[in-house]
Amino acid sequence: MRFISTPLLTLLAILVDLAVPVYGSPGGIPAIKRKDGGSSSNGIPTVDNFKNPQCKPWYGIRDDIMRNIYRGRCNDLARAAVRLAFHDAGPYSNALKAAGKTNGAADGSLLVSAAEQSRPENNGLQNITAALKDLPQKYNVSPGDVLHLAGTLAVLACPGGPVINTYIGRKAPAANYIAPDGLLPNPNSPVPVLLNRFADMGFSTRELMALMGAHSTAKQRFVDTTRANQPMDSTVEIWDVRYYSEMQSPTAAPGTYRLNSDVNFAHNTTTQQDFNRFVGKQNDWGREYAAAHEKMSLLGLDKNTLTDCTEIMPQSIDLSTVTTTSNSGKQPTDPTVDPAKLEAAIQKYRSIWV
Ligand code: HEM
Ligand SMILES: *[C@@H]1O[C@H](CO)[C@@H](O)[C@H](O)[C@H]1NC(C)=O
Ligand SMILES: *[C@@H]1O[C@H](CO)[C@@H](O)[C@H](O)[C@H]1NC(C)=O
Predict the structure, then answer these.
(1) pLDDT tens digits, residue range 56-67?
(2) 76: Cβ below 6 Å to ligand 2?
(3) 307 phi/psi in degrees, rounded to 5
(4) Is the pLDDT of residue 23 over 70?
(5) d(C-alpha 8, C-alpha 330), whole Å
């Protein structure tokens, strides 16, 4: 390369930067054959019934993620994908934007930037990034679209999780782009610090309290390594509101690990009302979580430049149909799920993938 002049190299570098890949002609991998022959009765839309042609390729990508990564279940990769969506978008800052500085966005940079991946707060996301990282190239789509579809699908893979509006059309992050550092929350920060950080992302207290319920299907590994893999609530396999009542309780449920920030949100006078609104309110939470997660998946992006592909999303599993008889028909604070009914619902609904 020594014979190439410096100005020419600069020009080359500019051209590489400008070469935004053209997406939308995914690599010809067909949607998987459904074991049920394509009937839509189990709530999973088929590509044959696509509405928007731009969404057509995404049915197969959906199936790839649901089958090969989540195995149709709320597994550890699904939990990690929800966290990944947050950690990709979380470095967004209105203050940085106003100052014209390098900003974060829901752009998939966490799927491509080794520098971001190696930050301590992203520890534990290695398995999910490894599982997703080849998909953009395999389907000729952007990392941000893959990462944020993986996030909204992961919520559905966890029984009880709501359908979240899902968009495609994000551009790839510029070469060597790294999201700004130090903007993801620390569980030992005081409530006002956390509220300010999320306000700078554009979230109200009420929206943040809805988002926090994602810890309903979360485990901790690095906050207390002597208790690695302990879940944050006692029903880690389902997307339910038990998290909200268990953070209120004077003591942690047996076998669970509560983050200081979560317990503080349940008790601080500024946040407790919005937090405790969701106790026993699965449907309210589902609706508000879905809206807040959608907003999170669009941070730093212009929604008008994206395409709504919610048409590909599977239906949500309604937890009220899998509770024990003693609870059905009532409005218990925390419905008790019947493991056999839950398993039957998962089998029926997920049978096209597993
Ligand atoms: C105050 C804000 C937040 C704090 C301080 C926080 C902190 C944490 C911490 C410390 C962990 C455990 C990491 C480990 O040791 O492995 C964790 C896990 C997790 N967080 Fe958060 N988080 C916050 C907000 C959120 C939001 C907004 C979401 C998504 C909407 C989210 C989703 C998750 C998920 C799904 C996990 C579990 C990951 C897994 O099991 O692999 N968190 N969070
Ligand atoms: C990642 O996968 C390895 C191998 O399956 C497993 O031992 C490890 O616990 C996983 N890490 C996380 C954070 O889930
Ligand atoms: C609760 O949060 C508010 C607002 O962020 C803050 O001013 C207050 O000091 C917090 N209270 C406690 C006890 O931490």
Answers:
(1) 999 999 999 999
(2) yes
(3) -110, 130
(4) no
(5) 73
